[in-house]
Amino acid sequence: MAEDAVEQGNDGNASFDAAWKDVRADEDIQFTNIPAKPPEKPPQWWTDFLEWLSDALAPAAEGIAAAWPALRIVLLVLLAIGVLALLWVILSPYLEDWRRRKPKLEEEWRPDQSMARRLLEEADALAGKGQFDEAAHLLLFRSIEDIEKRRPDLLRPSNTSREIERFDSLPEKARSMFSVIAGHVERGIFAATPIGEEGWTASRNAYGEFALAESWRKPKSGLK
Fold first, then answer.
1. I need a surface site. Which of 88, 146, 174, 180 has the fewest CB within 10 A?
2. Measured between alpha carbons, how far is residue 209 from residues 115, 184, 215 in Å?
3. DSSP-assigned states of every residue in 149-177
4. Cβ count within 10 A of residue 182
5. In b/e form, how buried is each residue of 99-138, taking b as 16+ CB within 10 angstroms?
């Protein structure tokens, strides 16, 4: 068995040597170091051009070096301006959207005083004839027209007086005065209870308050 192992070892060595010789004989495989070729010398015209460029830029380079303390401040300012401009470009759409969502202060408004006086004169004429129901109806219709002028986006043709008097978007005092007028008119229509002089007087006084500018001012935040 020992002799067989020696023979197998000799055969393996012989096979490795033969394979190594085959590899070394392959011309496609490089086994020797080949020194790199030195870089070619640039043409003379290129060397001359670089020397000329160096001489031409030398004064500018010296000037920049001398002015660098001030130039550095200028560059920093320009950099800050550039950063701010970039932030503005990025944030401006969001700022514009925020401005659109921000509630605007409502302009002071009240029913036209001359029209309100003419309305009251017409209603007083009806009341003078004892037509208190018609006079109160006239005030109610006029009040609804005033609300529609103030808030055209609020009313719908199907809205009833009871619905209108519950609109939270109306100022509290204007809503309360409208409720007085609507209440008397509703009782006259649905309860068949004549408004009478007392109901007419209350409705007339309510419309007088309704037409005041103070009735249309909403209280400031935190105040009642």
1. 88
2. 15, 16, 7
3. HH-TTT--TT--HHHHTT-TTS-HHHHHH
4. 23
5. eeeeeeeeeeebbeeeebeebbeebeebbeeebbbebbbb
Residue in the block written with tokens 């380079």: 61
Angle between the N-to-C axes of helices 196-210 and 132-150, in degrees from 0 to 180, rounded to the nearest 10: 20
Look at the block and give the residue holding tokens 């209603």: 123
d(CA 86, CA 81): 9
pTM above 0.70, yes or no: no
What does the H/E/C string look like for 71-138? HHHHHHHHHHHHHHHHHHHHHHHHHHHHHHHCCCCCCCCCCCHHHHHHHHHHHHHHHHCCCHHHHHHH
> Token pair of 91, please?
């944030």
Task: Report residue 224 as tokens.
Answer: 């009642």
Q: CA-CA-CA-CA torsion for 157, 163, 166, 167, nearest 10 degrees?
A: -20
pLDDT of 146-201, one tens digit each?
777 776 666 676 677 777 777 776 777 777 888 888 888 877 766 567 778 888 88
pLDDT in tens, 44-71: 888 888 888 888 888 888 888 888 888 8
